[in-house]
Amino acid sequence: MLTEFYHLLDDQFDKMVEIRRYLHQHPEPSFHEYETAKFIANYYANLGVSDVRTNVGGNGVVARIKGAKPGKTIALRADFDALPIQDEKDVPYKSKVPGVMHACGHDAHTSTLLAIANVVFQKRDELKGEYVFIHQHAEEYAPGGAKPMIEDGCLEGVDVIFGTHLWSTEPLGQILYRTGPVMAAADRFQITVQGKGGHGGYPHTTNDAIVTASQIVLNLQTIVSRKVNPIDSAVVSIGSFLSDNAFNIIADKATLIGTVRTFNEQVRDQIEKEIEKIVSATCQMNDSTFTYEYSRGYPAVVNHEAETEFLTECAKGIPGVTEVVESPQKMGGEDFAYYLQKVKGTFFFTGARRECEDEVFPHHHPKFDIDERSMLIAAKTLLTAAIKYQDYQE
């Protein structure tokens, strides 16, 4: 049966590329994906799927297709928001929206899931169980779309969930899996140092906020190197240092914005407290005050062991898959974590690296792109897992 399904997906490939490129040309940023959501809903309406919910938890779309025989309820998820980045590629399908582009592959995720749904709908009379197609908005920007979609019932009755991320820096044909924590919790913090400004020629009459903030940046580097157990992975990075003044003015205020990435909740708690301790002590030493805000983003993505092992077995032998390998942990965040907190499942990576090395760019890069054949590999892997799980006994 699967061979027939693979052939049907092969027949869908040109349409997958067409949809992906259309979405690539018409990107919408997180929480503003109104036309993309309409496009997805219209696709299902034209296909003839009757059970389609829109505005799920915001801009989310959920379609359900029942097989003719009783069985489990399998969910597959794809995200569809874009990023506030200017598309710098010289390709016919370049973004038409200034300052917005699909720089992470969500357009391809969406096209992949729509192709799977098309095949499942065609063959529904031969299938067991129910298939839930979760099209999620706002993955890129916390608080994200997964949590409100779950609260709005997208996982109702679901027994297991599978998801993949096309990965532009991994070889085409690779499926990368990992049991347990695979993607990091992604948090944000902001520190504002309040000193005492003044004339650049009389520094002794001031409390220089830039000097204090610079000391904080350096002192924060000791958290991972000296406070966190080396066995536990963690990152503390400052991404923004703001203090705008004339050349001859000593700053009275400076703002630091950064991110923390962890896999362990205890380490996450520890780092949040350590940052405040360092900021407080440094400001006290420099006769300055501060404000500190720590915002928790997505938790770590933690894959379930049995479902991950099941997925890896499914991936072996799928047309187009050349290698099934264990993935290193990735410091990127993903709100797929919330689904896995509610139901069993696994999140894996599908290699999508382009053949020309000069055209390989990482995610969130202005020239990001993928080898579109990766969509077909991802579709076959997800569909295989969904069908085979009907007969899986853990």
* DSSP strand tally: 16
In what order do the strands lie side by side in the largest sheet? 1-2-4-3-5-16-6-15
Strand content: 25-35%
Mean pLDDT: 97
Helix-strand pattern: HHEEEHEHEEEEEHEEEHEEHEHEH
First-to-last CA distance = 23 Å
Which structural class is indicated by helix and strand composition?
alpha/beta
Helix percentage:
25-40%
**Low-pLDDT segments:** none
Shape: elongated
CATH architecture group name of the largest domain: 3-Layer(aba) Sandwich
Largest sheet: 8 strands, mixed
CATH class descriptor name of the largest domain: Alpha Beta
CATH topology of the largest domain: Aminopeptidase
The radius of gyration computed from the alpha-carbon positions, rounded to a whole number of angstroms, is 24 Å
The structural domain count equals 2
| The named CATH superfamily of the largest domain | Zn peptidases
Number of helices: 9
Describe the protein's architecture and organization.
The chain is α/β, with parallel strands linked by helices. 34% of the residues lie in helices and 26% in strands. It has helices spanning 2-25, 34-47, 106-122, 146-151, 209-227, 265-285, 305-315, 336-342, 373-388; strands spanning 51-56, 60-66, 69-79, 128-136, 160-167, 174-177, 180-183, 185-194, 198-199, 234-242, 249-250, 253-262, 289-295, 301-303, 323-326, 344-351. The strands form 4 sheets. The chain has an 8-stranded mixed beta sheet with strand order 1-2-4-3-5-16-6-15, with helices on both faces. It is elongated.
